[in-house]
Amino acid sequence: MLEGRKLAFRYGEQREWLFKDFDLRVAPGEIVGIPGPSGRGKSTLAKVLSGYLPPQEGGVFMDGRPLPKSGCCPVQLLFQHPQLAVNPRWKIEAIMRESEEPPPELLRGLSINSAWLERYPHELSGGELQRVCLARALGSQTRYLLCDEITSMLDALTQVSIWRTLLHIARKRELGLIVISHDYALLKKLCARIITYFEKGSG
Predict the structure, then answer these.
(1) Is pLDDT larger for residue 110 or for residue 45?
(2) N or C: which end of the chain has fewer CB within 10 A?
């Protein structure tokens, strides 16, 4: 079980909390959606839940224990803009091996062409690079994926392909997914449960 308990965060001295007293529980294999307008704190919440930012109040726990501060985190975050998540000076092969080399069957499942491995990030399309980031995030230690608008910048066919592949992998491995999106219709199709905290302006 992934849990966020009484989480709160705000930047600097700003008066308003982006979120406060935010509770979240996601079970293995569960798909949970978080909608809401831009600027409300959804992406910040994703960074807190995945260990990129420490909460100013509350804590994040996996099976009742705090997230590990070293090694591969069991909660992985996928960003909206994949080019911001990779080193532009590294070839794709080095990027893929940064945490754990993906098995060949995962690369085939994500339709990652072996020819991409010798290319640099700018030589791939947005959809291709997002597949690379997804493969890198799906290490053997990963138990939860936070998907922050991961297909919003892609064409419709690429969106469908990526979500079909990701859902297949999640079911097979019983991964928990937290899907952040402006697209409420997408969340209704994907998710068993939708948290409307940010839609209501509670943050």
Answers:
(1) 45
(2) N
Residue 12 gets which letter from DSSP? Answer: T
Secondary structure (H, E, C), 44-59? HHHHHHCCCCCCCEEE
Q: What is the count of structural domains for the chain?
A: 1
Which tens digits make up the pLDDT trace of 71-105?
788 999 998 889 988 999 999 999 988 877 788 88
Domain membership flag for residue 24: yes
- Please name which of 15, 143, 134 lies closest in space to residue 72, comparing C-alpha atoms: 143
- Is residue 162 one of the residues assigned to a domain? yes
Q: What is the pLDDT of residues 15-26, one digit of tens each?
A: 789 999 999 999
CB 146 within 8 A of CB 50: yes
- Are residues 133 and 79 in contact, defined by beta-carbon separation less than 8 angstroms? yes
The confidence score (pLDDT) of residue 157 equals 87
95-134 exposure pattern, b = at least 16 Cβ within 10 A, e = fewer? bbeebeebeeebbebbebeeebbebbbeebebbbbbbbbb
Determine the structural domain holding residue 33 and report its residue range. 2-194
For residue 201, is it within any domain?
no
Looking up residue 105, the CATH number of its domain turns out to be 3.40.50.300
Q: Cα separation of 25 and 15, whole Å?
A: 27
Residue 14 has pLDDT above 90, yes or no: no
